[in-house]
């Protein structure tokens, strides 16, 4: 591979990686910011994932540039770019999976946080007793459903 084709391959490869990284950053930031109430957290997580994408992709580009593939000249550059695009597609899919997992964790965390209630609220929501109090014991009358046969009050066969 000549020096000109080597530099052309690296230049085009770096441009592709930077463009894909910006796409991931911009769409990932919007994706994670809308899933949680804190836009700063979504932005910082997206930035971390994007930096990981750039490092992995640039490392793969450097490794791919040293592998003899497709001869020299234009066929070699095109062959290497084809392999680079396939590798970028794989890394892009992995990053999308990571962003999806992060958003899922945020959504679950928000749902759990929204369901937390105080002890007093939990006691208020507790159902009333369904058992008749023992004679002499205070308590509300039981809540029972009507019988299915005559739609009247429930009666036990032993009473």
Q: How are the secondary structure elements laid out?
A:
Elements: H1 3-33, H2 39-66, H3 74-115, H4 119-125
Would you tell me the structural class of the helices and strands? mainly alpha
Helix-residue proportion = 55-70%
Helix tally equals 4
Q: How many structural units, i.e. domains?
A: 1
| Basic shape | rod-shaped
Beta percentage is under 5%
- What ranges have pLDDT less than 50 throughout 5 or more consecutive residues? none
Terminal-residue CA separation: 97 Å
List how many beta strands DSSP finds: 0
Q: How many strands, which pairing sense, and closed or not: the largest β-sheet? A: none
H/E order of the elements?
HHHH
Give a description of the structure.
- This protein is mainly alpha-helical and 159 residues long.
- It has one domain.
- It contains four helices and no strands.
- α1 runs antiparallel to α2, α1 runs parallel beside α3 and α2 runs antiparallel to α3.
- It is rod-shaped, with a radius of gyration of 32 Å.
- The termini are far apart.
């Amino acid at each position: 591979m000549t020096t000109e084709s080597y530099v052309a391959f690296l230049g085009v490869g770096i441009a592709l990686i930077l463009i894909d990284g910006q796409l991931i950053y911009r769409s990932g930031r919007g994706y994670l910011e809308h899933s949680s109430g804190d836009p700063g957290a979504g932005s910082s997580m997206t930035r971390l994932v994007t930096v990981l994408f750039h490092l992995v992709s640039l490392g793969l580009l450097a490794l791919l540039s040293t592998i003899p593939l497709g001869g020299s000249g234009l066929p070699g550059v095109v062959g290497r770019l084809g392999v680079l695009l396939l590798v970028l597609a794989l890394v892009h899919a992995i990053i999308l999976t990571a962003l999806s997992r992060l958003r899922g964790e945020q959504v679950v965390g928000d749902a759990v946080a929204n369901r937390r209630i105080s002890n007093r609220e939990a006691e208020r929501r507790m159902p009333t007793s369904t058992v008749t109090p023992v004679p002499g014991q205070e308590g509300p009358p039981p809540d029972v459903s009507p019988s299915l046969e005559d739609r009247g009050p429930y009666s036990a066969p032993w009473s």
